[in-house]
Amino acid sequence: MGKNMKQRLREQKKKNHEEFRQQMVRDVSKLLQEWAKRQNSLRKEQSVELSSVLKKIHQSNEEVDEVAQNLRSIKRKTLLEINRYKRGRSWKFYGACLVASLIGGFTAVLICATYWNYIRYYLG
Question: Does the pTM exceed 0.70?
Fold first, then answer.
């Protein structure tokens, strides 16, 4: 009878151990399923956030391109103005001004010389 009892105790231990193992497997499986659900929900949230971030990046890139285009236009216009200014202040420009002033002065002298008598008469 002692052997029989020991045998039953061993079988009961095995049975209890097997039930314990099965319960552990169920608990771990349940935890893994919860983690999988949480992971899927986090992935969905991240996907939504990532798409919104990518959209904002795309909009920012478009704005940067627009600003860059405006800056290139401003640079081009500024360089054109600088070139016009330099061209206006070249030696040719000064030479033309000198010739025009000489011609104007010569004309003034001729007019004064021609009408000198009238000028003296009116000035007294």
Answer: no
Distance of CA 85 to the CA centre of its chain: 34
List pLDDT tens digits, range 19-69: 888 889 999 999 999 999 999 999 999 999 999 999 999 999 999 999 999
d(CA 57, CA 65): 12
Residue 56: C-alpha distances to residues 43, 68, 80 (Å):
20, 18, 36
